User: Which sequence fits this backbone?
């Protein structure tokens, strides 16, 4: 059974009326390879176990409503949630959501991609965005910040656990795509130079790089004018005890990153 010990509670410069939590992989009902607190209903886990895990999520965190999950597709669509769904929620195809309604719980599922939580300085608007490399490159954060409808300087952002800059090995073509958009992103790619550093079965030959996903996200957010960006500094691929990691394990579960406004705020 999950307890508060099976969650991270992000600390960043946010108003007290905005709440946030990130689930760990521990404390749930799923079995290998989804052990145990898998919240993803699209990864091959038994639906009844996912349902039990999601019920636990809502109970332990005392959520005002069930999370508004998304059908994430590594795109840039952002949906606005005007009110807490009264009769259930059918996940739309999107990679971000924003809301100004108290009691609406926004949720992002991840297992290496970067979950991004955001709120306005006055606590009136919240956002949650799913940022893998495809979404970052396509502009999901730019779309998300714009959808919040307020000045970027008034937005406070938290970057959750994701694959870290010494575990995310990518090819030269991905690096080139980012540099083609903005040559100033070059420092976020470090060449893989040692045989011991390369992924199994890969040999360093000048075309493999470590990508700093949180660093790229921070850079793009600050380029928009977001002045406050805090990061967890936690790598999902390095910590198999606490985090699911698709890059590490292949078939695996998903953690949830949630943000909501307290009812009455």
Assistant:
């Amino acid at each position: 059974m999950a307890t508060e010990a099976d969650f991270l509670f992000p600390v960043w410069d946010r108003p007290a009326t905005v709440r946030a939590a990130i689930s760990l992989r521990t404390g749930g009902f799923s079995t290998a390879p989804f052990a145990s607190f898998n919240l993803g209903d699209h990864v091959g886990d038994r639906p009844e176990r996912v349902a039990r895990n999601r019920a636990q999520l809502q109970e332990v965190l005392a959520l005002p409503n069930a999370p508004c999950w998304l059908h994430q597709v590594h795109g840039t669509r952002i949906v606005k949630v005007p009110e807490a769904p009264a009769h259930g929620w059918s996940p739309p195809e999107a990679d971000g959501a924003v809301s100004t309604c108290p009691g609406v719980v926004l949720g992002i599922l991840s297992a290496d991609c970067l979950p991004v939580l955001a709120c306005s300085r006055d606590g009136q608007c919240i956002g949650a965005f799913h940022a893998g490399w495809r979404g970052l490159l396509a502009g999901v954060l730019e779309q998300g910040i714009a959808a919040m409808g307020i000045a970027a300087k008034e937005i406070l952002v938290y970057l959750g656990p994701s694959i870290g800059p010494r575990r995310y090995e990518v090819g030269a073509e991905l690096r080139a795509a980012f540099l083609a958009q903005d040559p100033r992103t070059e420092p976020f790619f470090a060449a893989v130079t040692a045989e011991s550093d390369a992924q199994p079965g890969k040999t360093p030959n000048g075309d493999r790089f470590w990508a700093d996903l949180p660093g790229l996200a921070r850079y793009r957010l600050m380029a928009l004018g977001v002045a406050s960006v805090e990061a967890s500094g936690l790598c999902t691929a390095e910590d198999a005890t606490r985090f699911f990691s698709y890059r590490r394990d292949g078939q695996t579960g998903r953690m949830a990153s949630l943000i909501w406004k307290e009812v009455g705020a």
The helical segments are 47-60, 133-138, 140-148, 172-181, 213-224, 246-249. The chain has a mean pLDDT of 94.
